[in-house]
Every structure is written in structure tokens, then in C-alpha cells.
Amino acid sequence: MDKIVNYLNSVRREYAGQELTIDSVAEDPFQQLYSWIESAVNAEVLDPAAMILSTVGSDNKPSARTVLIRGQEENGIIFYTNYDSKKGQDLVSNPYVAITFFWAELDRQIRLTGEAEKISYEASQKYFSNRPKESQLSAIASNQSGIVKNRKSLEDAYAAIEEKYKDSGKVPCPDNWGGFLVVIDSFEFWQGRHNRLHDRIRYIKVNNEWKLNRLAP
Ligand SMILES: Cc1cc2nc3c(=O)[nH]c(=O)nc-3n(C[C@H](O)[C@H](O)[C@H](O)COP(=O)(O)O)c2cc1C
User: Fold this and answer.
1) pTM, whole model, 2 decimals?
2) Do 174 and 136 touch, CB atoms closer than 8 A?
3) Domains in the chain, please, with CATH?
4) What is the mean pLDDT of residues 58-69?
5) Distance of CA 88 to the CA centre of its chain
6) 174 FRET partner, CA 20 to 30 A, in 20, 101, 205, 208?
7) Is the predicted pLDDT of residue 8 greater than 90, yes or no?
């Protein structure tokens, strides 16, 4: 362990991003979010759509995992998952989430908070129908977050579903699979700067208007 810590200390680096100010960010935080995602795509960040989604279970314990941002609405962003999964169950008892993006290539982090709600079955179905067939089959075959006896049982479940739909061009969207819209109520844009004096600009909604503040790093 000492060896790992020594190595990690030796790779400590300086952050050197451009200045981020209240005047330079967009008035609309969604516009700022999409402009940073666009920069991440242009900078060829690997998986720029990946975000860490944190939920809290009915036992009050937090849990975090990566999901992909796959849609947007005027007031939030959408990801897709299995509704019976651990995260799906957490969101039934507590819809409040935190979301984090981190792009080392740009010295940037984005933090969001919000409330998740299921999107309509029709909207999920529409998205599902455009996924590659292999992804559709694995969504049906995988009882996400359940215990799997071994790799073979997972592959057997996939093979059985593959066989069932082998002559079918259309694979139905399972009832327990679909999107969550996260309605966002706060945004924080973090830009790494020199001497650890990083820039943090936060938006929170007050009386239906976005209020901006600079936070200490
Ligand atoms: C890059 C990446 C993208 C992922 N995208 C998704 C996703 O969009 N939806 C999803 O349900 N799981 C996704 N996963 C898997 C989740 O991180 C997680 O393992 C799974 O959803 C089960 O989480 P849970 O047991 O906490 O519900 C992704 C994992 C990685 C590493």
C-alpha cells in the first residue's frame, strides 16, 4: 500500500485551466453544461457522456455508479437503466440525486443535484427501439444488480433471449427498463487553476431564477 501511496504522491500535478468567472459563463446553466460537454467532445475526452450518479437508499446509505447522459429536456437530463436495479430501487424511495462529471483532460468537474422521475413508457420504448439489437437483448437478459451464479449463467440467459428473438426485427422494451429525467436544481462548474486556486461557479434556483455565486476552492 505504501508503494501505491508513494506513487500517487509522485504523480501529483498542477492544474492550469483558463479563468472561469460569473461574467464569462452562460446565464442559462443548461447552455453552460452543453457548451462544456461540447468542449469535452472536441477535446476527445473518452466517454464524455459518462457521469457518476449518486443515490441514497432506503437505508440512508449513499451509492454511486457511472451512467450515460442520453437525452435532455428543458429542465433536466435523461439516463436509461433497469428500473429494478439498485439505483432504480433507491430512486423509488428517494428521488434526490447528485451527479458528477470529471474530465482530467480539461481540468474540469461539473456537479449537479436534482430530482429523478421516470419518463413515459412510450419515450423509453422509442429510445430502446433505436439501440443496437445486442444491447436490447442484454437489457432483457440481465437482471441488473441481481446476484449471478457465474458468467456462464449470464451467457446462457443471453443466448436464450437471442434464440427467442432470432427471427424478429423488433425486440420489445421490457417494462422494467427505461429512462429517468433528472430535473436539475443546482449546477457547479469547477475549473482547475494554478496553485490550487481553482474557480468554482455555482447556479442555484431562487424564486424560479438562477442565482450565480463564486465558491471558494
Ligand atoms: C462508462 C460506463 C457507462 C455506463 N452506463 C450505464 C447506463 O447508462 N445505464 C446503466 O444502467 N448502467 C450503466 N453503467 C453500469 C453502471 O455503472 C452500474 O454498474 C449498473 O447500472 C448497476 O448499478 P446499480 O447496481 O447501482 O443499479 C455504466 C458503466 C460505465 C463504466
Assistant:
1) 0.95
2) no
3) 13-215 (2.30.110.10)
4) 98
5) 14
6) 101
7) no
